[in-house]
Design goal:
With about 110 residues, the protein is an all-alpha fold. About 90% of the residues lie in helices and about 0% in strands. Helix 1 (about 1-20) crosses helix 3 (about 55-75) and helix 2 (about 25-50) packs antiparallel against helix 3 (about 55-75).
Length: about 110
């Protein structure tokens, strides 16, 4: 059950990071959480401590919690005012193109 809470949270947060253009930070975080920590810990618990499938689940759960905590740290340090200005600029520059496309589609109907 603990796995699902963190998995949902990190999935939501990583999607939000992608939507605001912070894909690189999310990718680096995922690589560190899974490849540097999750997989080695899963291997350790599964084979060295002989936990079997439970050991694999422990490693995966630790990786998901690291992702979740890492995403929260990124959001805590994010400059939201700057981010809102960037999004507003994108909307301004794309709005002309979008309205033209919408009008063209409406005329075709």
């Amino acid at each position: 059950m603990l796995f699902f809470v963190a998995d949902y949270g990190q999935g939501l947060l990583i999607s939000t990071l992608r939507s605001i253009g912070k894909e690189k930070e999310g990718s680096y975080l995922m690589a560190r959480a899974y490849y540097l920590f999750g997989i080695p810990i899963a291997w350790l618990f599964c084979f060295n401590f002989e936990f079997g499938w439970t050991g694999l689940a422990i490693g995966q759960t630790i990786a998901v919690y690291l992702m979740f905590i890492g995403c929260l740290r990124i959001f805590k340090n994010l400059d939201w005012n700057l981010q809102s200005e960037v999004i507003a600029e994108k909307l301004k520059s794309d709005s002309g193109d979008l309205s033209t496309k919408l009008m063209t589609e409406m005329v075709k109907m």
